[in-house]
Amino acid sequence: MGKRILCQGIIAGAVIGGIVALFNKDARGYVVEKMKSTSNCAKQCIQNPTEAIGGVRKAVDSFNQRIASTTEGAINALEQVEKTIGKVVDKK
What we know:
mainly alpha; 3 helices; YtxH domain-containing protein
């Protein structure tokens, strides 16, 4: 019950905050610009689903490569720390 009320409060606050923000002319212009951009992107995805899927695949592959590279760097750093600690302990 408490979780449901909390979620409803968060959603209501976000909706009310969004409405209040739209009183600002710059914010309205930004929303219109982003809605047009999103609409164009959605139309392109609907018209060319193969191209959209290819783009998603490229993005996922790029993300996986970054994760792999970061993981390798972290493992290398940990190995260097382990070696350094080993040298310090051996000297004592």
